[in-house]
Every structure is written in structure tokens, then in C-alpha cells.
UniProtKB/TrEMBL annotation, chain A:
Signal peptide: none annotated. The lineage of its organism: Bacteria, Pseudomonadati, Pseudomonadota, Alphaproteobacteria, Rhodobacterales. Pfam families: BPD_transp_2. Keywords: Cell membrane, Membrane, Transmembrane, Transmembrane helix. This is Branched-chain amino acid ABC transporter permease.
UniProtKB/TrEMBL annotation, chain B:
InterPro entries: ABC_transp_permease, BCAA_transport_permease. It comes from the Bacteria. Keywords: Amino-acid transport, Cell membrane, Membrane, Transmembrane, Transmembrane helix, Transport. It is a multi-pass membrane protein. Belongs to the binding-protein-dependent transport system permease family. LivHM subfamily. This is Branched-chain amino acid ABC transporter permease. It holds the Pfam family BPD_transp_2. The chain crosses the membrane at residues 15-35, 91-114, 190-216, 237-258, 270-298, 310-328. It is found in: Cell membrane. It comes from Ruegeria sediminis.
Length: 401, 343
């Protein structure tokens, strides 16, 4: 289907089902039960799942295929957000032109930054992208927000004010981002007995866009272009000696992944018309690296899983406080209960980043392939138990010398 | 003339911090070939060593002083730090006052141990892994260290004042013949610069004039051959990691009075230090020091009113701009050698 082989079609269908049915899947617990805090099916969080999924899929096209580790991709996300908000300010709240401009702007910037950064490889490349991203952050945070020339509105963040021109805004249209009149915030709530499910217009816009770009990513992975990028990762020197200039390929990959980031930024602004500089800080770039690694670098589904995983646990873990913990361990004897709560306390609530850091280190140390590799290992382990360990697939591919 | 001198002096303290951190980074990179993203966290831990020592010295007990009364007429409760009880009130007060310089002594063993534990416990397993993995695992470690410090010390900056005698400013201009008040310079910045020079000189002397340093330099040039000569180079490199950690830590200890330590100060410095290392040339120790001071001074020149009115915000981006220009024109940095990190 659509030029994909059977395996990829299945993958695409699974992703499509997961995203379209997410309001059901993420709300497995009745809304008034004690487990309801583990529900993730509310619009704001679902939107973040999908948006960061797009961001990570794009990042993976660069890092997973070519092996170039960029530490500055958050800059493109920020650029996308700023462009989208400017479209809202100047023209109208319609999201389509806003998203289009954010992709274009991110593409232009990534062309410029990539052209310079890709002259170097390895650690130099990482540091160059880091320097560019920090520079963009400094520009957005303070330099471009002076009274004479206010492009980013500094610390407050760029937002739409009542006295903005909004040339194409008419009275009938909602005063929030909308798709030809359909407000991004409009939500239909379906009550089924004890359960309630939210269907949000913004989420479905993001979900449809994610399916499209996920399909594009599959096509890129399977195309001759994708093979070229893999060749860059495994042995760039040999590629150069065979007379191929690898720079155009890596630059194309960089621009594509920058456009994915810009798209994510544009969607973020479309869901909530506000753009702030902190989105561009280098720790934000680190976050997308975390997502990609955690899910599985160089795999198709990995980055999406990683993004969902991190955003879900960020949300859930940071909500857990001591009283919740006491509730969980109430079955233990008193002294024991206090002890367990005291041990767990640093890792939840505000300490969520500690858990994330530890988790990330564990993944890099023991499971470099991320969640996807973990899944494969588990499956092999089960299969090995059943049919004997004689048919171990050799996952490693040695380059032929 | 005096204005130029003032800007150079202003750049020295930040430049010293950059140079010290970049020196440690380069030591680790040159010996072990590891890109350490947790180096900023080591700087931060050093600063918190000073905070810890300050808290230890201020541990006190309460006693009831019958001769004084509080506003309700009850006998006044007086808090006496243990140090003052043990060494007498005057000597005790001096010790508490000098807690930051004392923290240097306190921090050295701690930082050596932290560095040693980090290398043996984690970095050791990453020599054979790609640079990307090293970056990622040390990045994770930096997050963890930062969050641990935040858990114990909170998110707000903590003041670590310099000793009474070293507060205030000097009129340096008068000493070299300018008008009075032309160059006013805080004493602690001068102290920091001298301290940094001593540390940098110490590290270079250690590498240049001791047998241990000679072996380490030989190992940096050709690790395999040194190993074949029957020298346990890994153990020496581990010690070098400890020393690099101590250099970063000491930079942090002394930086506290200039800028109150908070848990993310390391991350703020880390990015700039990497830029410094790259500008200086990966793996070149003199390059790191030179680039550290150069960029510090450049930043200070860019912060003058003249520069910021000509190009608004130039002080925020000058370092990155310079780094990008240098990397494009001299890809190996100012003093980089051929063949380092080129694959």
C-alpha cells in the first residue's frame, strides 16, 4: 500500500490506529477511580505526545540515519513557534498558513546552520550546532526584543494582542487558533458509564499531520536516499573514496529534520498561541536526544515511543507527591511505610528529572538500542525459551572488507 | 587606554573560569579520549563544597546567657558555633570568615575522589564506545548530579561571601600611574585570577617536570607504546581524571563569591567551556588556556556600552560568533594538532 512493503504497511496501520484511538487507549481507568491519575487521555498531554513524536521522528532522520549528533535542534522548534505566532499576529488565526510558514522558516534556518555546521563532523559538529542553538536562544531571549525591533518579545514570550493587525480575521471566526473556523480547543467529551473520553480538534489535526510525516519518514528510510545516509553513518571515508560527495546528502537530511522540528514548533504554537525562548535552550535539544535514544535510534517507531514515554512519565511522575505515595504503601507496617516513602520521595514530584537522568544513563549503558531493542531482546528470549536457542538471529551486520 | 585596561581586567575573572574548566576538559580528552559533558557538574560540585564547608563551620549549639536578656526579659539564648567554642571566639570567627579559601583544601580530596569514582565507575566502560555514546552518558550523569545537588541544597543560589579582608575594591589605576578612580577592581576577582594562574601553572609544571607527568605526556602521544613498555598507563590516566576533576572543582570553589552557586551553574558554564576547548583546539592544553582568557576578555569588551549600542546584544552572542568563525577558517582551532578527533 502507498509504495510500502507489507511490514511497513503494518507498522503504519498500527501507528495510525494508536494515534486515532489514543483518546480511548490512554484513558483506561474510570474517571472517578483512584487510578484516574494515570490516565493520559486529556487533550493537552495527547497533543504533546504527538508533537514531540514528530520532533523526535525528524531528529531521528538526521541522528539515526547519518549518525550526526545535533545538540541544537530545539532552535528550529523555537523558530517554528515564533513564525507561527507571527502569522497569527499579522494575518489570522488560521493554522494552515502558520504551520506552512513555520516549516519554511525552519527549513531556511536549518539550511544556513547545516551548511556551516556540516563542514565538520563528529564532536565538532555537535558543538557547532550547540553553539548555534545557544546563539539563537540568546538572540530570541534578549537581543531581538529591544523596543526598536521587537521580534520575539523576550522573556514574556511572543503572543497575540488585541491591537495586532490580523488582516484576514473576520468576526465569525473564533479568537483562538482554528482550522477554517474549527477551533483547536473545541473538544467533544463522550461519557460512557464511568469512563469519559475527550476528542479534541487540535489533537486530531496533530495526529493526522503526524501520520503523514511518519509515512514520509518511512519512505525516506526505505529510499535510495536513505541508503546513502546509512552509508554516511557506517563509513563516510569509503563513500568519499568511491567518488561520492556526501555533503549534499547530509545537508538534505539536516534540512529535512530541521523542517520536522519547525513543524512541531508550529503545531505547538497552533495548540497554544504563545512562543517563548526557553523552548530553544540547549537542554530542550537534549530532551529530543533523550527521546530518540530512549526509544531506539535508527528505528522508525522508536522515537515516537520515546517521546510518548518521556512525556507520559514526566506528567505522571511529577504529579505524585508524598500523600499519594503514602496511599500506595498503606498496606505496609507504619515504620516500613515511612521508610519506603522517604526512599522514593527524591525520585517523584519535583525530582522527576533525577529519575529521567538515571533512566537515561541506564538505557545508554545497558540498552543502546533503546526500548525497541529491549522489546526485540524480550521477544527473542521468549522464543529462545520455547524452541531452543539454536535459531538466534545475528543482529549485527559487519561491513564487508 | 585606562578603559581598555579595565575591560581586559574585567574579562580576566570569567576568562580564568573558562580556562580552568577548559583545561580540565582537555586533560580528560587528551588522556582518555572521552568527551565529558559532566564537567560542568564537577565545577558545580566544587562550588557546593564551599557551601558545605561553610555550613559545617557554622554548626552551632545553643546556650543560655544569664547576663543578657531578650526583649521579653527572659535569659537570652546564644548560638555559638562549635569552631568558636573550640578555638576561642576570635580564632573561630576568623576560620568562619575564611571558609571559602579553606574550602579549597576541603575540596581537593573530595574532587579527586569524585573524579576517581566517576572514571572507575562509569567512564571506563565507554572507551570503546562511539563519542556520541560518551556525550550522552555524561550528559545523563550531569543531569543526575545536578538534581542530587538540587535535592540537598534547594534551587536558590546560596551566598558564599569572601573573607572580610578580601572584600571591597582596589584602585589599581593609581598604582600604574592613571588618575584615581580610573580603574577600580574588586579584590576577589584579582584573587581569582592569581589563583587560576597558580593552578594552571601547577598543572603544566606537574606535566612538564615530574616523571609521572612525563609518562602521562608519553601516553597522550602514543598510548599503546607506553603500555608495551610495561607501564600501567590506565592507572595514571585515572589519576589524571581525578586531577582534572579537582581543577574544575577548585575553579568552582573560588567562583562562589563572584556568583552565588546554584544547581545549574555548571550547565551554564559547560556550553561555553566546550566552545572554548574547540576554539583553542581539541586536545591542546595551552590552546584551552589561551582561548579561555581570550574569549573571556572578548566577552568583556563586547559588554561595554559602546559595543552594545553599536550592535545591540553583541555581548550575548560574541563568543558563539567567534567560535563559528574560527571553526570555519581554522578548523583545528587556534593551537590544535593534526590528527586529533578527525575521524
Amino acid at each position: 500500500m502507498l509504495g510500502l512493503d507489507k511490514k511497513d504497511t503494518t507498522l503504519l496501520i498500527i501507528v495510525a490506529l494508536l494515534t486515532l484511538l489514543a483518546p480511548f487507549l490512554l484513558n483506561p481507568f474510570p474517571s472517578d477511580s483512584a487510578m484516574a491519575q494515570f490516565n493520559a487521555g486529556y487533550p493537552d498531554l495527547m497533543q504533546r505526545f504527538v508533537i514531540f513524536g514528530i520532533f523526535a521522528v525528524g531528529f531521528n532522520i538526521l541522528f539515526g540515519l547519518t549518525g550526526y549528533l545535533s545538540f541544537g535542534h530545539a532552535a528550529f522548534l523555537g523558530i517554528g513557534s515564533y513564525s507561527a505566532v507571527w502569522m497569527f499576529k499579522l494575518f489570522s488565526y488560521n493554522v494552515i498558513p502558520a504551520i506552512a510558514l513555520s516549516v519554511i522558516m525552519a527549513g531556511l534556518f536549518s539550511l544556513l546552520i547545516g551548511f556551516i555546521s556540516l563542514r565538520r563532523s563528529g564532536i565538532y559538529f555537535s558543538i557547532l550546532t550547540l553553539a548555534f542553538a545557544q546563539m539563537s536562544f540568546a538572540l530570541a531571549y534578549s537581543v531581538l526584543s529591544n523596543p526598536k525591533f521587537n521580534l520575539t518579545n523576550g522573556e514574556t514570550g511572543l503572543q497575540v494582542y488585541a491591537d495586532d493587525p490580523q488582516m484576514f480575521h473576520r468576526d465569525g471566526l473564533p479568537d483562538l487558533p482554528h482550522l477554517f473556523g474549527l477551533s483547536m480547543r473545541s473538544t467533544y467529551t463522550l461519557d460512557m458509564g464511568a469512563w469519559s473520553f475527550d476528542f479534541n480538534a487540535g489533537y486530531y489535526l496533530c495526529a493526522v499531520i503526524m501520520m503523514i510525516v511518519f509515512y514520509l519518514a518511512i519512505r525516506i528510510f526505505r529510499s535510495p536516499f536513505g541508503m546513502m545516509l546509512r552509508a554516511v553513518k557506517s563509513n563516510q571515508q569509503r563513500m568519499n573514496y568511491t567518488g561520492l560527495n556526501s555533503r549534499p546528502y547530509t545537508l538534505a537530511a539536516f534540512v529535512i529534520s530541521g523542517m520536522y522540528a519547525g513543524l512541531a514548533g508550529g503545531l505547538m504554537a497552533a495548540m497554544d498561541p504563545l512562543a517563548g525562548a526557553e523552548r530553544m535552550q540547549w537542554t530542550a535539544s537534549g530532551e529530543v536526544v533523550l527521546m530518540t535514544i530512549l526509544g531506539g535510534t535508527g528505528t522508525l517507531i522508536g522515537p515516537v515511543l520515546g517521546a510518548g514515554f518521556i512525556k507520559y512519565f514526566e506528567n505522571i511522575f511529577s504529579k505524585i507527591n508524598d500523600s499519594v505515595l503514602h496511599g500506595w504503601f498503606a498496606f505496609l507496617p507504619d515504620g516500613m511505610e515511612d521508610f519506603v516513602v522517604a526512599v522514593l520521595h527524591p525520585f517523584v514530584g519535583k525530582g522527576w528529572h533525577l529519575t529521567l537522568g538515571i533512566l537515561f544513563m541506564l538505557v545508554v549503558i545497558f540498552l543502546p538500542g533503546g526500548l525497541v531493542e529491549g522489546g526485540t531482546r524480550l521477544r527473542n528470549w521468549f522464543r529462545g525459551k520455547r524452541s531452543g536457542a539454536d535459531d538466534k538471529p545475528s543482529g549485527k551486520t559487519e561491513p564487508a572488507e | 587606554m585606562d578603559a581598555i585596561l579595565l575591560q581586559i581586567l574585567n574579562g580576566l575573572d570569567k576568562g580564568s573560569a573558562y580556562a580552568l574548566i577548559a583545561l580540565g576538559l582537555t586533560l580528560i580528552f587528551g588522556t582518555l579520549g572521552v568527551v565529558n559533558f559532566a564537567h560542568g557538574a564537577l565545577f558545580m560540585i566544587g562550588a557546593f563544597c564551599a557551601v558545605t564547608l561553610q555550613r559545617i563551620l557554622n554548626l552551632s549549639f545553643e546556650s543560655v546567657d544569664e547576663s543578657q536578656t531578650d526583649f521579653l526579659g527572659n535569659p537570652l539564648k546564644v548560638k555559638t558555633p562549635y569552631v568558636e567554642a573550640w578555638f576561642g571566639p576570635e580564632a573561630g570567627a576568623v576560620i568562619i570568615d575564611w571558609s571559602v579559601p579553606l574550602a579549597v583544601l576541603f575540596a581537593i580530596p573530595i574532587m579527586l575522589f569524585v573524579g576517581y569514582a566517576m572514571e572507575r565507575g562509569l567512564i571506563k566502560f565507554f572507551y570503546k564506545r562511539p563519542h556520541a555514546d560518551q556525550i550522552l552518558v555524561t550528559f545523563g550523569l550531569a543531569i543526575v548530579l545536578q538534581e542530587v545537588i538540587k535535592y540537598f541544597f534547594g534551587a536558590n543560589p546560596i551566598q558564599t561571601p569572601p573573607p572580610e579582608a578580601l572584600r571591597g575594591s582596589l584602585d589599581l589605576g593609581v598604582m600604574v600611574g592613571f588618575d584615581p578612580n580610573a580603574i577600580i577592581y574588586p579584590i576577589w576577582r584579582l584573587v581569582y585570577f592569581v589563583f587560576a594562574t597558580v593552578i594552571i601553572g601547577g598543572v603544566f609544571a606537574f606535566l612538564q617536570f615530574t616523571t609521572f607527568g612525563m609518562v602521562v605526556r608519553a601516553g597522550m602521544a602514543d598510548r599503546e607504546t607506553v603500555g608495551l613498555l610495561g607501564i600501567n598507563i590506565d592507572r595514571r590516566f585515572t589519576i589524571m581524571f581525578g586531577i582534572a576533576a579537582a581543577v574544575a572543582g577548585l575553579a568552582g570553589v573560588m567562583y562562589g563569591p563572584l556568583n552565588p552557586p546554584n544547581y545549574h551553574m555548571g550547565m551554564d558554564f559547560l556550553v561555553l567551556s566546550f566552545v572554548v576547548v574547540v576554539v583553542g583546539g581539541m586536545g591542546s592544553l595551552p590552546g584551552a588556556v589561551l582561548a579561555g582568557f581570550l574569549l573571556g576578555i572578548l566577552e568583556s569588551f563586547a559588554s561595554t556600552t559602546w559595543a552594545t549600542t553599536t550592535i545591540p546584544g553583541i555581548n550575548q552572542i560574541i563568543i558563539y560568533l567567534v567560535a563559528i568563525i574560527i571553526l570555519l577558517t581554522r578548523p583545528r582551532g587556534l593551537m590544535g594538532r593534526k590528527g586529533v578527533m578527525e575521524d
